[in-house]
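Weekly structure sync, notes
Attendees: PL (lead), two postdocs, one rotation student
Agenda item 3: pending single-chain targets
PL asked that the sequence for the first pending target be pasted directly into the notes so everyone works from the same version. It is reproduced below exactly as submitted, 253 residues in total.
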Amino acid sequence: MIKVRELSKFYGKKPVVEKVSVNIRRGEITSFIGPNGAGKSTLLSMVSRLLDADTGEVLVDDTNVKSMKSNELSKRVSILKQSNYMNVRLTIRELVSFGRFPYSKGNLNAEDLRIVDQAIDYMNLADIQHSYLEELSGGQRQRAFIAMVIAQDTDYILLDEPLNNLDMKHSVQIMKILRRLVDDLGKTVVIVLHDINFASVYSDNIVALKNGKVVKEGPTDEIIQSDSLKEIYDMDIPIQQMNNCRICVYFNS
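Predicted structure, written out during the meeting:
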């Protein structure tokens, strides 16, 4: 479990995240939702220690991340940020191999290569693994970066808006793969999402932020309710039930 306790981040005197406390349970998908500027990405960055918190603490399996060596943390928590542009010419395979760096320090052994192959196969990239990143479509490129995270082989995978700039088909593919990572491999996925219907259909739990604070937290069915969504987004959002999923009809609200 990841325990976030009284976490805050200020830019000047303005709190971007303010006294946030949440529990992220193992073996589930937890989605961070909320309006733009709610603090979702900042919170995710502090959980991964990419960004230092001004107050509070983050515990990964009861160990404070501040006390963990970088190499130890990178074997337990991986993160994929929104901006994953790399100014270097790499093939998919070379990129995915970077996921093994905490273990191999660049000298891949047979086990590292096996895990790289496994991650490439998992993301259905084997037939194009020697293609360069600049040759890929947006969906292929995002799958390549997620394969790198899979190769890192951490219990906790943090993803910051991985569906940005993807069409509907590729967004669904990515979410189905993340669901499989949890259900088949026992990973724990924490994901920042803007589309509340993807959060509704694929998440086990939802943490809703607004103005840097947690306004709702709990199982998905408890959060995807019209009264809760109105509190989060300041708009009326009717809910329809389709194939055992709650779908938010916000486009004509």
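Discussion points:
- The CA atoms of residues 98 and 148 lie 7 Å apart.
- The chain has ten helices and twelve strands.
Action: rotation student to compare against the earlier draft before next sync.
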